[in-house]
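User: Predict the complex.
Assistant: Input components as received:
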Amino acid sequence: MSPTLNEIRAAAERIQPYAHRTPVLTSESLNRKVGAQVFLKCENFQKVGAFKFRGACNAVYSLTEEEAARGVCTHSSGNHAQALALAAKLRGIPAYIVMPNNAPAVKKNAVAGYGGLITFCEPTLEARENTLDGIRLESGATLVHPYDDERVIAGQGTAALELLQEIPDLDVLIAPVGGGGLLSGTAIAAGEIKPGIRVIAGEPEMADDAFRSMRAGVIIPSVNPKTVADGLLTSLGALTFPIIRQRVEQIVTVSEAGIIETMKYVWERLKIVIEPSAAVALAVLWEGKINLRGLKAGVILSGGNVDLEKLPW
Amino acid sequence: MSPTLNEIRAAAERIQPYAHRTPVLTSESLNRKVGAQVFLKCENFQKVGAFKFRGACNAVYSLTEEEAARGVCTHSSGNHAQALALAAKLRGIPAYIVMPNNAPAVKKNAVAGYGGLITFCEPTLEARENTLDGIRLESGATLVHPYDDERVIAGQGTAALELLQEIPDLDVLIAPVGGGGLLSGTAIAAGEIKPGIRVIAGEPEMADDAFRSMRAGVIIPSVNPKTVADGLLTSLGALTFPIIRQRVEQIVTVSEAGIIETMKYVWERLKIVIEPSAAVALAVLWEGKINLRGLKAGVILSGGNVDLEKLPW
């Protein structure tokens, strides 16, 4: 089932004691550069450095005492893993995390630092799911899927909720799309609060499965995508795809060069650290494939977890 | 003459239409790491990405109409040059900038981008001063020295003024020291607003001329220092040295490794871009050579202008 605006509002109340209300930044030089009035919702300043904490926290604090006692588990390439580990730590329950063995060092260390119990596996979706199934059956832990989970989607929607409380007259709202959890939550919140607002997704050209899925009308899985935006490698889910089909105007693909240029510009001019996946949404404005000139555009900067030893320029 | 607190307050009013009131950030993980309650005054978010805009702006807007018409000039390795160029542009007057030919590309481009009229010279203090003298005599422009200038010192003091308005009960205030403009303004503002507050400077071990000058009681010039903190290469001035001797408790030197570790930590955990010179002040807490445990410590993060192609790790 698709979460409702009320469930997103309930999520906002539930996570409020734990999550940051992140700032909304603006930059005159950025506005001039892209020809729009841009409002950046800075989830790079969120706990664990990404919006993922919102969904994970909502899921963990939605559990009954009995469910919670057995812990939570998931597979994730990084940010969701950190988020779930921290949320579980805050509630005092175990978090079992299946991670691909090629995940960036900074992400592995962060998950371990939050007390997550990591099991490594081969970097394929199949290996992850098999490993996770084993752990789940043994521990009785509740699976918190990175995106195909109502509680997670409702949590992710709280970023758009906050942004629209602060800037109610946005014309358009842009989020990146990987598995579609953030995009689904964003689209529900925006569409229900402000009917008629345009919701647009940014996706790497090199991982354009969501773009192709929208065209085809069925989920086309992501097969070994190669993009600098390592948070957007996953495929849409059974829960997120219908929400996105119904509520998202279009998915705009952006080039690798555009992602890197946008990311570097934000570091240089705004002096904030964002990850490539966060730059993907802003790159929609940067590359200008669709005309959003003169509009008030909200952009969700999804996170700021980057391996500083391996920068893409 | 040393500027007074009233002159710093006047500077704050004068620059208020042009400069950002920068945010004060905190981080629980940073507090745990250094064992103090740290309040970061984020001058990396200031116009041109550094505190230098405060002093330059105060100097430019202190000129009479007649003086202003002939323009301003200076020599600077970077941030002051950008700051003066922008302040002059805002007032609609020319800014003649003498820069060393080995300044980082990002800084050269930024000065040109703000409309500064650049003359390059050899990277020695002598070459800079000779080149500047020629330009000054020809144009009649007013020299705005990067630090040894009352108007500049008063402008730099406005950062500490704002920080103490927001966090009035600081025990200690730490700033980096290069030529001493920021440190002098900080020490005057802090000492006059809150007598008894401890003012401490951070300085790179590899450019420890201020440390040695304090010991010796006379200005010991900086000779070809080699440090990653390229904003702190200059020597103390005739105006800044006596202020620092009178008002600064001590200058603490920090290692190159400590500067780089601190800088990287801030990027990774706080998700903000700071330059090595900004990390120098925080490295005083990071390295813990002097005991500031449990104190409320303000730290002025001086700027965020970094060449992203040449990171020090």
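The domain at 53-143 of chain B is CATH 3.40.50.1100 (Rossmann fold).
Let me know if you want any component modeled separately.
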